[in-house]
């Protein structure tokens, strides 16, 4: 699952290189939220999801993306966890004002 997130985020970054900053942030949030949603669907406890989310950010090879993940996505894991029970990753990222 960790590899899936890394590849998804890298693919998003590659597809949006020419896009504005918000486009990249939105794509990164949606990729991250998609992974969190998988945990929510499996009813993984929030504490475990928080640990996995931090590990996923640590695995990112691009420093700027890693910083974004740590500063903007990790602090929102609890909100994402709650929202993704009823929302799509895109809608959850809109609620966080990242899309």
UniProtKB/TrEMBL annotation:
<feature type="signal peptide">
    <location>
        <begin position="1"/>
        <end position="18"/>
    </location>
</feature>
<keyword id="KW-1015">Disulfide bond</keyword>
<dbReference type="InterPro" id="IPR008139">
    <property type="entry name" value="SaposinB_dom"/>
</dbReference>
<feature type="domain" description="Saposin B-type">
    <location>
        <begin position="22"/>
        <end position="99"/>
    </location>
</feature>
<dbReference type="InterPro" id="IPR011001">
    <property type="entry name" value="Saposin-like"/>
</dbReference>
<keyword id="KW-0732">Signal</keyword>
<protein>
    <recommendedName>
        <fullName>Saposin B-type domain-containing protein</fullName>
    </recommendedName>
</protein>
